[in-house]
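Bit of a strange request maybe. I'm writing a small parser for structure token strings and I need a real example to test against, not something I typed by hand. Could someone generate the tokens for this chain?
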Amino acid sequence: MQYQCPKCQSRKILPLASANAPAVRPNVPKSLIILVPTLFLLLLLVIISVVLMIFSNGAGETLQIATVIVFLIAVIAGVMFWKDLPDFKISMQAFMQSQKKWKCRECNHEWEN
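Reply from user aminoacidic:
Good idea to test on real output. This should exercise your parser:
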């Protein structure tokens, strides 16, 4: 199945909920739920460290330790997500194939499979 709008060929589509069928959701692994906020926190800590290095005497020891700890958590969560990736992929494909009604976000065209 092509996941794109038949009218404008855009890939920016979203599934529409049907009133008579229960909502089917993909299984999102816990490692992904940990990984995404950890990456944002790591980015924030690195930006703060760089700003402190430029405008001050450098990042303090506490900030450096916190950055290393968050980096290790991100690596562990990344490895766990990598192990969960095949199941997540199958779950996401089953979710996409179970959807019957779709809507394009660019041209607002609605269609059914």
